[in-house]
Every structure is written in C-alpha cells, then in structure tokens.
Write a structure and sequence with these properties.
The protein has 3 helices and 14 strands. It has 171 residues and is mainly beta. The chain has one domain. Strand 8 and strand 9 form a beta hairpin.
C-alpha cells in the first residue's frame, strides 16, 4: 500500500509510490544509525489558490492543496537524493529545520526537512521531508553541517552546534 494515493489529472494517473516512507543506514564512526524518512504532500503539491480548478485539488490527511506536475516529477528524485546525503553537507534553515539544494535538469530544487530523535524502537532518527520545490532565488549563505554528524547528534537527542554562515554549494 502506498502512503499517498495516486492523482488522476486530465486522464493521466500520477503515481506517488516513490514517496512511501523508507529506512536507510548511516554509518558514523563505529556505529550505524537507522534513519526513517517520511514525506509530506508538499513535495508534489502547491498552495491551493483561487485560480486553481477543482481537478488539481489533492487532499491528504487534513490538507487540501493543488497537485503540481513539476513538483511531482522532481519528487521522483527525492529518495536517491536523501540516501546520497551521507558525507555531504546540509544547511540550517534558521527555522528549526534543515535544507539542501540540487539542480536537476538545470532547475534549482530546494528540499526542507526536519530531523528528530526517533521514539520508535529500531529507528534512531526520524526525517520528515517538509517541502521540496523549485526555487530560482534563495539566500546565498547558510550554516552547514555534515549530514552524518547531524544524524549522530539527533540520534543522541541533542541539538547541533552551527558554525558561521558560508556560501551555499549547489549540486
């Protein structure tokens, strides 16, 4: 069973099984941390505006948003992007979450996530991908942290220390 129901729009069915929650391992020092990743519908929807027709409405849990074809296509990259964060930097968003930036098909793609110590046995850290969307303009500086170090800190229920802001490196 998929976490998100598929969306049918103009006769095309858009599958969302790629956004089913998953686990992966992050080796840090001599320990392996088990990370669970979950997505929100903000990864493939946009804010519902008055100009949106009823055909684009997507409802998940208590949210009603507009299905976005571009966000849907980009969301297919998210599981691999998340697994690829090991030994790479992510950035502090100054709002209690973290982000990273990629440029698939020359599109600036910003991914925001939260990371918390898990309360579930067998899982060390719970990551929730809060939003993922194209964003052409963004701040050029932020405080980085190594993703593996972030997982270690969060697994121990701690809050990471951040260094000075540096120029964001886009991949």
């Amino acid at each position: 069973m998929t976490f998100f129901a598929p969306k049918k729009l103009q006769g095309v069915v858009y599958e969302l099984s790629h956004l089913t929650p998953f686990r992966f391992n992050v080796p840090v020092d001599e320990k392996i941390y088990v990370i669970r990743v979950e997505f929100t519908c903000h990864c493939f929807t946009a804010k519902l505006e008055p100009h949106h027709g009823l055909d684009v409405v997507y409802e998940h849990k208590s949210e009603k948003r507009a299905f976005d074809i571009q966000r849907h296509e980009l969301s297919k990259l998210l599981p691999d992007y998340i697994r690829g964060l090991v030994s790479n930097s992510v950035y502090w968003s100054n709002k209690g979450s973290f982000f990273f930036w990629r440029t698939p098909q020359n599109t600036a793609y910003l991914v925001f996530f939260s990371a918390l110590k898990s309360r579930t046995k067998g899982i060390d850290v719970q990551i929730k991908i809060m939003s993922a969307h194209p964003k052409p303009q963004m701040a050029k500086y932020a405080s980085p942290i190594d993703f593996t170090e972030l997982m270690k800190v969060k697994a121990n229920g701690e809050f990471p220390e951040f260094g000075p802001k540096v120029q964001i490196k886009r991949k």
